[in-house]
Amino acid sequence: MSSNLRLAPPPPYAAKISHVAPSKGAPSAPTSVHDTMREGLPHTVATLNIHHPLEHRLKGWEEQQEKIKMEGLRRVFGLGEPIRRGMEMKIVGSDFRPKVLGGPSNLHLDILKNKDWTLDWDDIFTDCDRDMPSFHDEMETRLRMKW
Hints:
Layout: H1 36-39, H2 44-47, H3 53-59, H4 61-77, H5 80-93, H6 107-112, H7 121-124, H8 135-142
């Protein structure tokens, strides 16, 4: 089977953490000793997993559910249906509306994702209380004319 139907996304972190990576090292030293003079200080922060595994899975939950939905549509209706829905989502998601005029409305995208009946934090806590840029400043930023 080319694509699997996993309910939860796979973990993005490594299952094992090795504190000492095998490096070239000095000729007289064992290979497991880190050569600080040649390699610099070891970067253990990048190799350690400081996040809970559930946090990574929750971040990828919606994308995984969308992949399952598109795979099901491909299996039932053929390749045309997921391509059509992907094009519709891309067209609707690229909607631009300046904040002066109320900001972007994602109603059409919510309808396509079948989330028009849900109530999220973004629906209640908007960015209206922050300092709003002028229409011309926002258009210059969007069109990359801000020199």
